[in-house]
Design brief:
Number of strands: 18
Strand order of the largest sheet: 11-14-15-16-13-12
CATH topology of one domain: Nucleotidyltransferase, domain 5
Oligomer: single chain
Largest sheet: 6 strands, antiparallel
Protein name: Mu transposase C-terminal domain-containing protein
CATH architecture of one domain: 2-Layer Sandwich
GO molecular function: DNA binding
Helix content: 40-55%
GO biological process, one term: DNA integration
Radius of gyration: 50 Å
Distance between the termini: 152 Å
InterPro entries: DNA-bd_dom_put_sf, Integrase_cat-core, Mu-type_HTH, RNaseH-like_sf, RNaseH_sf, Transposase-like_Mu_C, Transposase_Mu_C, WH-like_DNA-bd_sf
Structural class: alpha+beta
CATH superfamily of one domain: Ribonuclease H-like superfamily/Ribonuclease H
Shape: elongated
Length: 692
Amino acid sequence: MFATVNELVGLPGLPGTPQGIRAMMGKLVKDNQALVRKRQGSKAFEYHIDSLPPVTQKALRDRQVKELMKNQDAALPSPERSAVMEKSNSRLSLYRDHPVLMEQKLTGLTADQQKTADARIALVSEVLKLGEIPGFSCAKAIREIVRQSRNGELPEHLATQVTLANAKKGSSRTLSEISLKRWMADFKKARTSTERLVLLAPGKRQRVEPEEIAWLPDFLAYYRNPNGVTMAEAYDDFIKGWYTRYADQPEMLFSAPSYNTVRYAMDKLPEVVKQHRRITGSEARQLEGFVRRDWLCLPVNYVWIGDGHGMKMKVAHPDHGKPFSPEVTFILDGSCRFIVGWSLALSESVIAVADALRHGIRNNGVPYIYYSDNGGGETNNTFDANITGILPRLGVDHRLGIPENPQGRGIIEILNKTLGMRISRQFATYYGTGADKSTVRRVSKSLTAALNAVDKGRELTAKQEQTLREFPSWNELIGEIEAGIKWYNNRPHEALPLKGNGEHFTPAQFRKYKLEKEKTEIEWLSDAELRHGFMPQIERTVSRCEIRLFNNLYYSEALRDEHNRQVLVNYDLHDATKIIVSRMDGSLICEAFWDGNKKAAFPVTAEYWQKQQRIKGMRERGEERVRLAEAENVHTLSAPVAPDWVHSNIYHPVIKGTPAMQVVSEEEEYIEDEYLNNALDMLEKNERKSAI
C-alpha cells in the first residue's frame, strides 16, 4: 500500500505541511529505497505504508477502510478457494446432485427472502474488500464492521443492509460476528450466484394449510350460507355448537378457537373457497377463470348480439302521457362493435326485438348468427319456431347465452351500461346509478304534482311549468337515442385496433375497413321481404273459409278448398285488419280480412235508407235555424245604478247586467213552425220527382 505526500497531509505523526512531510519521508526511506517509488503516470513520489510511523499507519488504514465502505460500486473480489471450502456440504451437495431440488428452492423463495440474501452477500463483499488492505485481515474486517454497526457508525447503505440481513423485526437487533462469519463461510462454499442465493437465503415459517385445521370445516358449515351471514354471526353459531358438542370434554372446551383465530384462518383461504355456496350463478363465475372471446377475427355480419335495456329515466307515455320507463333494444355487430339496429318500446317484447332486427337488416344486411339472452322478448315461437319463425325463414342461426351467465355477452352488457346510461343521464328524470337520491325524490314529487294539476285543470305554478318543460317527450327521447348511437359509432373504441396515427378505429371506420379488406358479400332484403319476412307466422286450421286468430275471425272465399286443412298464417304486429294465408309448402293462397263475411241479419231497403237520410237532413236544418233565431233575439239589459254605500263593514255587491231573451208569442212560434214544415214538404216532393 503506497501513498503520496498530498494523501498523507493531515494524518497524525507527520508535519502539517507538504514540504515538512516530504523532508521527513526523505530521511525515513534514505536507508531503504524500496519503500519509495514514482507513481505511474505522474511525477509525484509515493511512500510505502511500512515506512510511516505506527500512529500514521493506523490512521491511514482507518481512512482507507471508511473510503472502501462508502464506495457502493466497488467490485466484489473473488473468494479464495481452499481445501476446507471444497469439502462437501450435505445440503449443498444435495442441491448439486439434484438440480430439480435447486430449482424448486429458487422458485419457492419469497421476495423478502431474496432481499435478505442480497443484503448478506453485500455485507460479505465488504468484508472481502477490507480484507485486501495490507495488514487488514478478514477477521479484523468482520470485527470492524460489527463495531461500527453497534456504534451506529456504518454508512447509510450498509446500515440498511444490516437491517435486511437480520431477517427479523425489531430496531434493537444488531449484527453479530458469529452471523457474519457464518454468512461468509456459506459465501465461500458456493460456486455460482445461484448457490449463494440458496445458501444465504433465510428459512421461513411453514404455512399451516387450511386442510390441517381440524375445526375449520365445522366453521365453514355455518359460514357458507346463501343469506350472506357475516363472519361474526357464523362464529356465534359455531361456538355455540362447539360448547354443546363438547360439554363433557373440558380439554376441548378450553381449546375452542377465538374469533381472531378464525379470522386469521379465513384470511388464508382463497376467495373462491370462502365464497363457495355463499354466491352462485354469474357472481360465482366472476371468481373463476374464463375464456376471453376474440370478436375482431370474425367477418362483418357474422354475429349480431342483441339485448334489451330498461332505461333508468322517466318519459311521457306516447298514449296517455304519464311517466314511465321505456325499453331500448340495441343490436351490435360483434366483429366491429358497430350498432346496426335499435328500437324503442314500452317494454321488452317480441315487437321491440323484431323491430330492431328489421332496422338492422334494412340498413346493414342479414346476419349469419343472432346471439341473445334467454329473455321472453328473445326466445319465443315468433322468432324460433321451425318453419314459421322469423329467424329460420331468413336462414339466421339463433344462439342463446347460458342462463345466469351475462359474461358471455359482455360487449352488449357494457354497451347498455355506457350508451344506455349516457342517454338516460341527458334528462332531468334520470334515477339510475350515480343520481342524487334527494334530487330524484324532488323531481318525482314535482312531476307528480304538475301532472295532477293539469288533470284537475288548475293553474300551474312557475315551478310546475319548469318541471313539465324538463319532462321529456317520446320524440325527444328518440332524438337523443339517435344522437347517442351516432356518437358511439363514430368515436375511437379502445377494443379496436390502432390506426397509423396511433388512435383507435371507430366502429364505423373499422366496419368499412373490414368490408374493404375481407370483401365480405352482404345479403340484402327487398322492402317486400322486409315487410313480410318480419311478419310472425303461425299454423292454423281452416274452417268453412274462416281462420280464428287471437279471438278474431278472418274470412276469404279463396279458402273454400282448404277446409279442415292446416295453413300458414302471417300476421302484422301492428295491423290486425288482415292476414296472409299460405299452404304448408309456402305457396300463397290469399289475404283474409277481419270479419270479411259479416253482414246485416236482414237487408236494408233503399226506401228506408232514403227516409233515414231525409230525417237526418231535416233535423240538421231545423237545429241550424233554431241557433240562428236564438242568436238574433238575444240582447243585454242595461245595468241598474248602484245605491250609495252605507257606512258600515257590510259589503254590497254590484248587480251586473244579465242577458235576457225576447219572449215570443205562442201564435208566432206556431206560424214559424208551419212555415218550416211546408218548406220541408216541398223539398221532399222535389226529391221524389228527380228520383223518378
